[in-house]
């Protein structure tokens, strides 16, 4: 049973979960070794920056409009099918 102070001292884990020789976790959370995992946040920032630059280019060219934060690409030919060849 878990309490606010940590695991119950008399509690034994079910058999098979911990094998003899397995290193135990430190008692204090500050002592835990946290592995460094490459963050995908960096990739997301780069991708969003590239996308925003592309959208700005499209917007400056007059081919896009912003509606409530959503970019809608406007094709003049789709708006006026009678001008299609």
The main sheet orders its strands as 1-2
Low-confidence stretches: none
In terms of structural class, how would the helical and strand content be classed? Answer: alpha+beta
Question: How would a textbook summarize the main sheet?
Answer: 2 strands, antiparallel
List SSEs in N-to-C order.
EEHEEH
Considering DSSP H and I runs of 4 or more, what fraction of the residues is helical? Answer: 25-40%
| Average residue pLDDT | 63
Total beta strands = 4
Basic shape: rod-shaped
**What distance lies between the first and last C-alpha atoms, to the nearest angstrom?**
76 Å
Describe this structure in words.
The chain has two helices and four strands, in the order E-E-H-E-E-H. It has 85 residues and is an alpha+beta fold. The strands form two sheets. The chain has a two-stranded antiparallel ribbon with strand order 1-2. The longest helix is centred in the middle third of the chain and has 20 residues. The N and C termini lie far apart (76 Å). The mean pLDDT is 63.
